[in-house]
Amino acid sequence: MEKLKLLLLAFFLGFSISSWAQKTEISGVVLDEKSMPLPAANVLESGTSNNIVTDFDGKFKVTVSNRNATLIISFIGFDEQRVKLDGSKTNYTIKLISSSTNLEQVVVMGYGKGSRKNLTTSVASIKGDQLNRGVISDVGQMLQGKVSGLNVSTSGDPTRQASVVLRGASTLNGSQGPFYVVDGIPGVDISVIASEDIVTIDVLKDAAATAIYGNRASNGVIMVTTKKGSKDRTQITYSNYFGVENVSNQLNMMNADQLRAFTTKNNLNFTPENDKGANTDWQKAILRGSGAQSSSHNLSLSGGAEHGNYFASITALNKEGVLLGSDFSRIIARLNVEQFAFDDNLKIGINVTNSNSKYTNVPQRNTALQQSVNHLPVSPIRNADGSFFENFVQTSYFNPVALIEHGVDDTKTNNFVGSLTAEVKLPYGFSYNLNLSYQQLNSLHGEFYDSYYQQYNSASFYNNPDPPQVKQLVNFGVNGSAVRNSYQNSNTIIESFLNWDKTFGNHKIKAVIGYSWQEDVLGDGFQATATNFPVDNVSYNNLALSNYTSVNGYVVNFGDSKAYQKRRLISQFARLNYNYKDKYLLQGTIRRDGGSVFGANNQWGYFPSVGGAWRIDKEGFMKDQRVFNDLKLRVSYGQTGNSSGFNAYTSQFISGSLGTFYYNGQQVGAYGPNQAANPDLKWEKTATKNIGLDFTILKGRVSGSVDVYDKKTTDMIFNYAVNPVLVPVGTIVANGGNMSNRGIEGSLNINAIKTRNFSWSTTLNGSTNKNVITKLKNPLFVGGDSIRRVQPDGGGQTGSTLQIFKEGKPLGQFFTLQYAGKNANGVSQYVAKDGSLTTNPAIGTDYHYAGSAQPKFLLGWDNNFTYKKFDLNIFFRGVFGNKIFNATRADLFRPSTAMTTNILVDAQNESPNDLNAYKYSTRFIEDGSYLRLDNLTLGYDFGKVGKYIKKIRVYETINNLFVITKYSGIDPEVEQGGTAPGVDSNNFYPKTRTFLFGLNVIF
Q1: Which residues form the signal peptide (predicted)?
Q2: How distant, in Å, are the alpha carbons of 83, 317, 333 from that of 138?
Q3: How many CB atoms lie within 10 A of CB 780?
Q4: How many other CB atoms sit within 10 Å of the CB of residue 845?
Q5: Strands 870-880 and 857-867
Q6: Rounded to an integer, what distance in angstroms lies between the CA atom of residue 388 and that of residue 403?
Q7: Which pTM was predicted?
């Protein structure tokens, strides 16, 4: 019996020892540098999927499979830490180091990476969780207000991307947006990336950072890094939100009672055709009654094994527009796989993304917007019999609701991006990379205007294009008209580069040398138009049912004769980084680009850069100081180019149709030159000087940077008017202009408060930029040193322009009549060219310079608060010192026509006898400054819930809660990109206020 007891005791002791060898409960606490607990930090047993998150006090308990296991502890904003269990301890105190204070944050550059502490260039980095949140479908809006020097403007239209301008416009071409590189693939359409899949965005600002991309980098480069799987854990995440948007502001138009009182007071009478006794709010009539609904769902799965990892996600986004007939939806699927071989010396990566989008546009959008404010409130939407009210006797007077309901405007796109990458580690610090990528964008567009639109042909239907385009007369054929086109763009890139990373004592060298080959095929497809359909429900789906040949004079529109383009780019590039004692840093780059889009005599360009930095805090004289944790001075210079904004055949001679001429009793087609050749056409070049200072003080609690830059563009490409005797076409695309941008940028990060239950961190960024066209001449140019432009063509405004390209003035310089109040007869008067006052000013001759659309200062202010399990984000954004030409207000300031079109309430004290009241002039130039509470988000983190849910966070977000501004239009955030910034011209899609509820779950 005693032997049996001893055997049983030995068995249980052995079982216990075996159990200890296999499973052990480990507890501990995770703290930051100041010994404050970090709730929701992730604790993972390496090589397994066994992980938990810390509780509110930063504490955790986890049962590991082995007493000598390794724990991986991670938390957003802190460096990941690995803790090797020693087999005897069961309780650990783990401190994480903030990545913002140790300066080891990795920054993505062209063809490589580097630590922020050793940067010699100006680069701003934004983490995925710091991006703007809300009903957002493009990266530009995610970055709005987050990066100093980045000017982003958006409208409320869900089908339009934001305009993005970095450090001021660098060209007179319409293409001013930055160049995007996604996971090393250059030129990716940013719409293929879901915001939830973004890890970091690095904005390369100065030419020393961007020159490695040569002729595509003048407008800056934005590097996007997306999520990858981890071999240490398997994770499923799900995020969604549901939102409602409503118009945040509308124009203050007269209602029926106000307008009737005004017309009675001034002895004006409505025509019986218009006055039906109604009281219609036409702006409200074209809006969705219950607001616009939006939703987003993102599901991702990630994980890996010892020699590989994977990440897969799918995102579904739907966003209704607040205007009737507008809608946007997108589905994005993404797969990333990395596999290692040969002792991890070879890494093969496959990245495939497909984005499928549908844009439902408001038919004749800008005209519908214009008609919604022009229409008289005494006119009803529908007649008593249910048909739409119309008055076709009155020219350019159309029912905006009818325009929307009787038209269709759809675009479907499918965007595919695929890449194969290989990286081989070689002896002596060398590594070789080969990147192959292919992008294909297919678009299918259709418009249909049913037989109802035929009635508009008799009433002078003009379109209402965005500036600087000029309106044109539109004819809708007979019995319905349709347009259908299908185009495909493809892009093939092969890039090969060799890296060398070597340390020799106190000397560190990082170098890269490579080759890039790219071929683009654009506009591979066709277009056709048709009219005279048997029924309206055919829409644009079957043009063969039309009978256009029976319509006298109808000509099928086969689209742009220059739609198909093929271009090739071949490049060699190199970069050298030298580091001495982590104290003195030097970088040099060179890129040689050859492009088929330029003249035969100038197809190659060279783009060099050099940058240096001095880490002052590493010097001996800084050893005993206690103020600076980091202090670095940066200086750089570089050249970049621009190869966008013009087509592949810009430099070549092209002949085509020149219309018809009358000969021998018939109209005969004419054919001849319509584009002049320019074999000397060459790159635009932008040279940037940059001086920067980076600092961290107070033991990492405060950090920031200041940059001063001087950016000069030479040989700007523009379509110049020339003497027809020299160039029969009358225009030529040539180099000739120069432009300058000078500015200061600053950013400040402060961890203001950090206690057990409460924290507050704030980030402030601001920038100023001065833009000037310093030269606008070409030997052939017949226009002197200026070009008047931007002509909205409002009623009675024929020939009146709003802006001017002028040497010594900025892009967006307003040039118009100078309003001088009213004379003794109550008639508006203006300052003539000679300084006298006149009531009959001459268009163009009596014009004066009247401010600029360029903002003087941009501001972003981000605040993050936490209290126990609650988190609160408050983000303000401001634009200051810019002017807006409120052409919309001018066109609605016509008291003399109040009996035929509506007017603003502000015009009620105007006299109908003042026929000058509405003239485009300084009277309608307003201060466009504003401060907006852009985002307010309140969240609650439940932490771990149950066995399988590691984290649940719910949040409520309000976008555009309020805006402080003196601007009298719908919203001061008018278009800031392109070549006609700051013009509000009857085309403003209303901004919205959004309320959304969101959920984030980690399994």
Answers
A1: 1-21
A2: 40, 12, 16
A3: 17
A4: 8
A5: antiparallel
A6: 10
A7: 0.88
Query: What is the C-alpha separation between 310 and 335, in angstroms, rounded?
Result: 7
| Residues 965-974: tens digit of each pLDDT | 999 999 999 9
DSSP string, 699-733: TTTEEEEEEEEEEEEEEEEEEEEB-TTTSTTSEEE
Q: Quick one: pLDDT at residue 17?
A: 41
Say how many residues make up the chain: 1003
Measured over the CA atoms of residue 617, residue 124, residue 933 and residue 78, the dihedral's sign is negative
| Token reading at 776 | 């606008």
Mean pLDDT, residues 919-934 taken together: 96
Contacts (Cβ under 8 Å, ≥6 apart) of 593: 214, 215, 569, 570, 571, 604, 605, 606, 607, 641, 643, 683
Name 343's Cβ contacts closer than 8 Å, sequence gap at least 6. none
**What is the tens place of the pLDDT at every residue in 601-612?**
988 989 999 999
Nearest in space to 894 (alpha carbons), one of 927, 916, 861: 916
d(CA 694, CA 115): 14
CB-based contact 532:546 (threshold 8 Å): yes
Please tell me the predicted confidence (pLDDT) of residue 14.
45
Angle at CA of residue 613, ends 626 and 514, nearest 5°: 140
Q: Which residues contact 371 (CB under 8 A, 6 or more apart)?
A: 282, 397, 398, 399, 400, 403
Closest alpha carbon to 718 in 781, 672, 657, 772: 781
Can you tell me whether residue 786 is helix, strand or coil?
strand
Residue 663: half-sphere exposure toward Cβ, Cα within 13 Å: 5
Which residue type sits at 6? L
**Local structure of 471: helix, strand or coil:** coil
Phi then psi for 939, rounded to 5 degrees?
-130, 160
Of 800, 838, 834, 805, residue with least CA distance to 819: 838
Average pLDDT over residues 836-840: 95
Which amino acid does the sequence have at 889? R
| Tokens 């009635």 found at | 455
The span from the CA of 244 to the CA of 997, in Å, is 9
Please report where in the chains the tokens 């005797």 appear, as a residue.
Answer: 725
Contact residues for 877 (Cβ-Cβ < 8 A; gap 6+): 144, 145, 859, 860, 861, 931, 932, 934
19, containing H or E segment:
helix 2-22
Across 881-948, the runs of DSSP E, i.e. the strands, are: 883-886, 925-927, 930-945
Report the 10 Å Cβ neighbour count for 352: 15
Report the 3 state secondary structure along 586-639: EEEEEEEEEECCCCCCCCEEEEEEEEEEEEHHHCHHHCCCCCEEEEEEEEEEEE
Hey, which residues does 78 pair with through a beta bridge? 98
- The single-letter code of the amino acid at 984 is D
Q: What is the distance between the terminal CA atoms of the chain, rounded to a whole angstrom?
A: 52
**Tokens found for residue 788:** 């008047």
C-alpha angle with apex 460: 157 to 473, nearest 5 degrees? 65
Amino acid type, 100: S
- A 10 A CB-CB count for 200 gives 18
Q: Are 400 and 374 in contact (CB under 8 A)?
A: no
Q: How far is CA 687 from CA 60, 173, 640, 729, in A?
A: 54, 17, 6, 33
- Are 52 and 62 in contact by the 8 Å Cβ rule? The answer is yes
pLDDT tens across 68-105, in order? 888 888 876 677 788 888 777 888 888 887 654 445 57
Q: For residues 364 and 403, is the Cβ–Cβ distance under 8 A?
A: yes
Token couple for 526: 């066709």
Report helix, strand or coil for 284: helix
* Residues 6+ positions from 869 with CB-CB distance below 8 Å: 39, 56, 940, 941, 942, 943
For residue 58, what pLDDT is reported? 84
Cβ atoms of residues 682 and 735 within 8 Å: yes
The Cα 885–Cα 867 span in angstroms is 45
